[in-house]
Amino acid sequence: MSHVLIIGCGIIGAAIAYELSLSGLEVTVIDRQPPAQAATGAALGVLMGAISHKIKGNAWQMRARSIKRYETLIPELEAVTMRRIPYNRQGILMLCFQEEDLASWEKLAAVRSTQEWQLEIWNAAQLQLRCPQLNTEKIVAAIYSPQDRQVDPVALTIALVEAAKHNGVQFHFGVTATGYCFDNAEQQIYLQIENAQLSEQIKEVDWLVIAAGTGSTALQLQQKSTTIACDRTRIALSFAGTQQMQSTPAVEIKPVLGQAIHMQVDRPLGDPSFQPVITGNDVHIVPCVGSQPVTNYWIGATVEFPVNEQVVADATQLEIVKQQAIAFCPALAQAKIIHTWSGLRPRPEGQPAPIICNLPGFSNILLATGHYRNGVLLAPATAQKIREMIVRGE
Ligand SMILES: Cc1cc2nc3c(=O)[nH]c(=O)nc-3n(C[C@H](O)[C@H](O)[C@H](O)COP(=O)(O)OP(=O)(O)OC[C@H]3O[C@@H](n4cnc5c(N)ncnc54)[C@H](O)[C@@H]3O)c2cc1C
What we know:
Distance between the termini: 10 Å
Number of strands: 21
Oligomer: single chain
Low-confidence stretches: none
CATH class of the largest domain: Alpha Beta
Bound molecules: flavin-adenine dinucleotide
Strand content: 25-35%
């Protein structure tokens, strides 16, 4: 039986581990942190499928595949783990302001109906009726996507880990992969890890999946990797492919910072029985559906690019997001701020997100990374793609 080693236990690594556990492969996951930290620990879990402007090709297929898989995945995981995963089935409502091109939404709604997805276009009066909490002064219409969803990314990742464990996957947290080394005498490539006991236990793997988010650049095997001195804390990689190492990483993953706020109100915003994710000007109001009635909301997120290679959370940017949310939902001005947080989204430099392919020259080192703003959305489809690549290569 082939042994697959996954580096990274954010939403991507955890989804792959669970998917592979259904295929009877031997799977081990390592992460330098506990599960669901890094970008996944900061995500809002908004799953923008039908409401995205992607209509064809891989970008649309992955969205459609993921949203469909979520409908079966959530009950499946809840049954195995006996725990509820907060999953909002009330859709996503996108607010359109004066400058919005409504004709393009009408075109998209027509395309979606041929794809068997539904998009409704509401005028301001309909919107006010369904969502009385909104200040519709500057809003001309809204697009309602009833089949899109939102999920709690941390609860989901923990459930994936638990269910994968249940199916025999081994997880090792607090273990860092530090790079590669090349043993000249043995003509063997090794992955170096910071855990002697584990490297002794695993010894050799057939497949390596790099799902390390912003840590993925450093983990791509390249010529300069071979300069790392070999010690005993290493796992042999039994390679297939041409084994041609590149001089630079195949893909550079750069961090893009996002900040968000957890707010609490005395009573649900608007109709307690209709609590979709509301999004306007790229600001999301996300009801926390884990407890009912809903009185907790996540607001976010900022999109902050590094300045001189430095990523520092800018308080002004978060304030702008908060004020935008208050502008279309005035009751939030009275809300209590429970906490604020930030995370680093993994964005591929110079290539579209995400990166799901083999590392050039190595057919059994797979990259599943660079999901940027949509890692939670695309996790199920990513996991299915990785499984297909492994099954094809067996
Ligand atoms: C504020 C914010 C809001 C977001 N909202 C959404 C949203 O609404 N919807 C959506 O779909 N996406 C959203 N995202 C994006 C989403 O969070 C990411 O795309 C996704 O979490 C990426 O998952 P990942 O598993 O690839 O990376 P991560 O979650 O970053 O996990 C990578 C893991 O790899 C480990 N690792 C790295 N290097 C090593 C190493 N050398 N050795 C061992 N372990 C290593 C890390 O410890 C980490 O646990 C948001 C992101 C942010 C920051």
